[in-house]
Amino acid sequence: MTIDVRTRHAVHYSQSERMTSAELRENFVIEDLFVAGTLQAVYTHYDRMLVAGVTPTQTSLGIGSELAKLVGADYLLERRELGLINIGGSGRVIADGRAYALQPMDGFYLGMGTKEILFESDNPAAPAKFYINSAPAHATFPSRIISSADAIENNLGDSATSNKRKLYQYLHPKVLPTCQLLMGLTRLETGSVWNTMPAHLHDRRMEAYLYFEIPENAFVVHLMGRPAVTNHLIIRNEQAVLSPPWSIHCGAGTGAYAFIWSMAGDNQSFTDMDMVDMKSLK
């Protein structure tokens, strides 16, 4: 079993505004979360969010001592919670001996105190791809599957502005209790390309985006930075972007796509956004 663990330190906006494209990617883009037979993890200094991708094939993959050591605990979820969405084939999570079967686009929440976590795929040729976010927790809430049918569906945008999309809230106070994690999935409709436009900020929370369902020769132009000093990142299929609290996070693709958004920070108010006037973007 292969586990690759990396750390991303926090960056001040004044530093990012002097970075080259390569330096921006090094600090804010995660390019290789899903590698067959491995667990890929990035520990960030933005609200201590852990971002990981697990792609089990022939054998189980487990969260071992490497991640526990990273967070300074006896086991990863000693003082943390974990959320995930499966963007691959069917599989299962085995948590402290109990198996949870997950179909494509199912979500899952694991509460603080879960010690042993294993991941498996039903078909190694079409493996599950578990996209994971973990953040510090202060209380234990029940672990449970959140199917795509359980998620709250929101219809947003308009075809006239090329941003018609469906937003599904998986980890949300109206669905289940969590300490601070919010997590959901947005899928753009055919003919629409813009996500999260008009743009916004929320200085009280960080955010991470995982873009997927992007064809091989397509990409998304992800916009980041302060509203008046924006940068862009070219994002390919199944790559993630870390969005600091000082940064906008929106983008446009060469066609329709999907992305998973997740947040951690001071509150769980999804509508706590500081909207950015379109005229102020530069």
UniProtKB/TrEMBL annotation:
Protein name, UniProt field: 4-deoxy-L-threo-5-hexosulose-uronate ketol-isomerase
E.C. number: 5.3.1.17
Pathway: Glycan metabolism; pectin degradation; 2-dehydro-3-deoxy-D-gluconate from pectin: step 4/5
Pfam families hit by this protein: KduI
Keyword hit for Isomerase: yes
Entries under PANTHER family matching the protein: 4-DEOXY-L-THREO-5-HEXOSULOSE-URONATE KETOL-ISOMERASE
Keywords noted in UniProt: Isomerase, Metal-binding, Plasmid, Zinc
InterPro entries cross-referenced by the UniProt entry: KduI, KduI/IolB_isomerase, KduI_N, RmlC-like_jellyroll, RmlC_Cupin_sf
Recorded catalytic activity of this chain's protein: 5-dehydro-4-deoxy-D-glucuronate = 3-deoxy-D-glycero-2,5-hexodiulosonate
One annotated GO biological process: pectin catabolic process
NCBIfam families in UniProt: PRK00924.1
Cofactor note: Binds 1 zinc ion per subunit.
Positions annotated to bind Zn(2+): H200, H202, E207, H249
Coiled-coil regions listed: none
Record bears the keyword Zinc: yes
Molecular function per GO: 4-deoxy-L-threo-5-hexosulose-uronate ketol-isomerase activity; zinc ion binding
Required co-factors: Zn(2+)
Gene: kduI
Family in the record: Belongs to the KduI family.
Functional note: Catalyzes the isomerization of 5-dehydro-4-deoxy-D-glucuronate to 3-deoxy-D-glycero-2,5-hexodiulosonate.
